[in-house]
Write a structure and sequence with these properties.
Layout: H1 3-8, E1 10-17, H2 23-33, H3 56-68, E2 71-76, E3 79-84, H4 93-99, E4 105-111, H5 118-130, E5 134-139, H6 148-158, E6 162-165, E7 167-170, E8 178-181, E9 186-189, E10 200-203, H7 211-234, H8 240-244, E11 248-253, H9 262-272, E12 279-280, E13 285-286, E14 294-302, E15 311-319, E16 322-323, E17 328-330, E18 335-337, E19 343-346, E20 349-352, E21 355-356, E22 361-366, E23 375-377, E24 394-400, H10 406-418, E25 423-427, E26 433-437, H11 440-454, E27 458-462, E28 467-473, H12 476-485, E29 490-492, E30 498-502, H13 505-514, E31 518-521
Parallel strand pairs: 1-3, 1-4, 4-5, 5-11, 6-11
Antiparallel strand pairs: 2-3, 7-8, 8-9, 9-10, 12-13, 14-15, 14-23, 15-22, 16-21, 17-18, 17-23, 19-20, 24-26, 24-27, 25-26, 25-29, 28-30, 28-31, 29-30
Helix pairs in contact: 10-11
The structure holds guanosine-5',3'-tetraphosphate.
C-alpha cells in the first residue's frame, strides 16, 4: 500500500465523557467489533474509583493499566483505527485535554438520563479551541432518559455546537423499541431480553410504509413519523464539511452496554471522520502527506518500577514516515536521536515497529529527554503548538520536607511536571513554589511518587488562591504599573510565562476594573 493510502485509511480519535456515561463500555464494544478483543470485559476500566483516593497502590496499578490501554489500534473494514484512551478520573482532566491534541476527531458519550454534564462541557471547550470534529453517542437508551429533543437542545445550548441526529430512538427505558438509522435508512430493533443483544436490522427506506406498524406497533410508528418530520424541519441536512470544520455534531442514539447502535456509529464514523489533518506548527502548517517525518510528544508515562525510572514518550506522527533506528532532530534539545525500540499498541498488545505513518502513535523509550509538546523532525526547525495550560483549580505551596534530599525533590518535581502531572508556578516575590492541580488526588499522587520514585519528601502548605491568569495587554505602561503594584501576586509558570495569581473572584474583578487594558485569561493560549 502506498504512503498516501496509508494516511487516508487512518482514523485517530478519542472517546471522551463525563465519568460513568459509558466511555469504557463503548470503547470495549468498538474493540469487539474491530475483532481486537474477543470477550467483553477484556478492557479494564482505567478509572480511578473515588474510593481509591488514599489507596496509592491502586493508583499505581491503574497507571499500569492505562499504559497498556493508552492507544488501542485495530483494523476495521480496511481502515486503521487508533483510539486514544483518556483517564476517566476528573482529577486527571489535564491528561485528557492533552490527549485531545493528538486526535483527529472525537466521539463524545453522553448519558441520556443525565444529559450534558460539567466534564462534557470542558472537553467540548478544548475541541472547540482546536476545531476538532465531534460526534455524539447518546448512551443508555435502555434506561428511562430525557426526551431526545431536549437532549439535542441541551447539546446545542451547553456545548455550543450545532447538532444533526443521524439516528433516532423509538421510546426508551422499558419500552425502548430500537432506533431508526436516518443515515443508512434502516430500522434497528432492540430486543432487551438478553443483555448482549444481537439486533435485527431492517432496510427501511420509506418510513411511511404500513410495514412499520408490524415492527413497532401503531403508537410508536405514529410518534416516529412525527418526530422524523420534525427533525427534517428543524435540523438542516447533515453536511459533512460543517462537521469536519467542527461546527456540526452528528448524533447517534444507542446503548453501549447492550451493544446497540454501536456498529452504526462505527460504520458511519469510518465513512465521515477525517483522516489525519493538517497540523499547525508555530512556523507553518504541516501537511500529513509531506514526505519528511515530523511528530510531537503529547503524553509521557513513567515506569511504575522505581528501579527503572525510564519513561515512555507517546509521539503522534504528523507527517512523513517514521522509521526505526533513524536519526531525527529533537528540536528543543537541538540534538539528533534515534530510536531502537519504538512501540505500537494493538489493543492490549505492544510490539516493536519498523515504520509508522501520520495518525499513528508511537511509544518511545525515554530516559528523561522529553517534555510534553516536544517536536521531532528530519531536521527542520519547527515547533508544534502544544495544548495551552489551563488555570488549575487548587493550589498549594510545596516545601522540601527532608533537607538532605533537596536535589531529589527538585529533579522529581521537574520530571513530574514534564509528565504533566500538575502545574508548577514560582512566585516572583519570594521564589516559593506553588503546585496547581485540578483535584486533590493529584497532590496525593505527587507526594507518593516523589517519595517512591525519587526518594524525596515534600510537604504542602495551604494558600488561598482562586485562579492563575495569563495576561495580555496592548498598553505597556499599564501592564508595567500592574506589575509594580501586584508584584507579590505574580508568578512564572513552568515555561517562564508570567501569571497573575488571583486570590478570589473579587480580587480578579477589582484588578480587571482598575487595569482595563489588561486581559486576564484562564488559559495560556488566547
Ligand atoms: P465511563 O468509562 O464513562 O466512566 O463509564 P463506564 O463505561 O465504566 O460505564 C459506567 C456504568 O454505566 C457502568 O456500570 C456500565 O456498565 C454502565 N453502562 C454503560 N453503558 C450502558 C448502557 O447502555 N446502559 C446501561 N443501563 N448502563 C450502561 P457500573 O455498574 O458502574 O459498572 P459495571 O460494574 O457494570 O462495570
Amino acid at each position: 500500500m502506498g504512503f498516501k493510502e496509508e494516511i487516508k485509511r487512518r482514523r485517530t480519535f478519542g472517546i471522551v465523557s463525563h465519568p460513568d456515561a459509558g466511555k469504557t463500555t463503548l470503547t470495549e464494544k468498538l474493540l469487539l467489533f474491530g475483532g481486537a478483543i474477543h470477550i467483553a470485559g477484556a478492557v479494564k476500566s482505567n478509572k480511578i474509583k473515588k474510593t481509591a483516593t488514599s489507596d496509592f497502590m491502586e493508583i499505581e496499578r491503574q497507571r499500569g493499566i492505562s499504559v497498556a490501554t493508552s492507544v488501542m489500534a485495530f483494523e476495521y473494514k480496511g481502515r486503521k483505527i487508533n483510539i486514544l484512551d483518556t483517564p476517566g478520573h476528573q482529577d486527571f482532566a489535564e491528561d485528557t485535554f492533552r490527549t485531545l491534541t493528538a486526535v483527529d476527531s472525537v466521539i463524545i458519550v453522553i448519558d441520556s438520563a443525565k444529559g450534558v454534564e460539567p466534564q462534557t462541557r470542558k472537553l467540548m471547550e478544548v475541541c472547540r479551541m482546536r476545531h476538532t470534529p465531534v460526534m455524539v453517542f447518546m448512551n443508555k437508551l435502555d434506561r428511562n432518559g430525557k426526551n431526545p429533543f431536549e437532549l439535542l437542545d441541551e447539546i446545542e445550548n451547553e456545548l455550543k455546537i450545532k447538532v444533526r441526529p443521524l439516528s433516532w430512538p423509538i421510546s426508551n427505558g422499558s419500552t425502548f423499541k430500537g432506533v431508526y438509522n436516518i443515515y443508512e435508512e434502516k430500522l434497528n430493533l432492540f430486543s432487551g431480553e438478553s443483555k448482549q443483544t444481537v439486533e435485527e436490522s431492517i432496510e427501511f427506506k420509506d418510513i411511511n410504509s404500513p410495514e412499520l406498524e408490524k415492527y413497532i406497533g401503531e403508537k410508536y410508528s405514529r410518534i416516529l413519523r412525527e418526530e422524523l418530520e420534525l427533525i427534517t424541519e428543524v435540523y438542516p441536512k447533515f453536511d459533512i464539511d460543517t462537521y469536519l470544520q467542527g461546527h456540526l455534531a452528528p448524533v447517534f442514539f444507542g446503548s453501549a452496554l447492550n451493544n446497540f447502535g454501536v456498529q452504526e456509529l462505527l460504520d458511519c464514523f469510518i465513512e465521515i471522520a477525517p483522516h489525519p489533518r493538517i497540523v499547525v506548527a508555530e512556523e507553518r502548517e504541516v501537511d500529513p502527506f509531506e514526505n519528511k517525518f515530523s511528530g510531537f510528544v503529547f503524553k509521557i508515562h513513567a515506569n511504575m518500577d522505581p528501579n527503572h525510572r525510564d519513561r515512555i514518550a507517546f509521539v503522534k506522527i504528523c507527517s512523513g514516515t517514521f522509521l526505526r533506528n533513524t536519526n531525527y532532530l529533537h528540536v528543543r534539545a537541538g540534538k539528533n536521536m534515534k530510536f531502537a525500540t519504538p512501540t505500537a499498541f494493538m489493543a492490549d498488545k505492544k510490539s516493536i515497529i519498523d515504520e509508522a505513518f501520520p495518525g499513528d502513535i508511537v511509544g518511545i523509550h525515554d530516559t528523561g529527554n522529553f517534555k510534553i509538546g516536544d517536536t521531532l523532525t528530519e531536521g527542520e526547525n519547527i515547533h508544534y503548538k502544544g495544548l495551552p495550560s489551563f488555570s488549575p483549580e487548587m493550589f498549594r505551596y510545596v516545601e522540601n520536607a527532608d533537607p538532605m534530599k533537596y536535589k531529589q525533590l527538585a529533579k522529581g518535581l521537574d520530571q513530574l511536571m514534564d509528565e504533566g502531572v500538575a502545574q508548577l508556578f514560582t512566585n516572583k516575590f519570594n521564589g516559593r513554589k506553588i503546585i496547581g492541580t485540578v483535584g486533590q488526588l493529584q497532590f496525593d499522587v505527587i507526594q507518593f511518587r516523589l517519595e517512591h520514585e525519587y526518594g524525596a519528601k515534600c510537604r504542602y502548605e495551604s494558600i488561598q488562591l482562586y485562579k492563575a491568569c495569563w495576561m495580555e495587554s496592548s498598553d505597556k505602561a499599564q501592564l508595567e504599573d500592574f506589575r509594580k503594584r501586584k508584584y507579590n501576586a505574580l508568578a512564572d509558570d513552568k515555561y517562564g510565562r508570567e501569571v497573575f495569581l488571583a486570590e478570589s473572584p473579587y480580587a480578579l474583578q477589582m484588578a480587571q476594573e482598575k487595569f482595563d487594558k489588561i486581559k486576564f485569561h484562564f488559559t495560556s493560549e488566547f
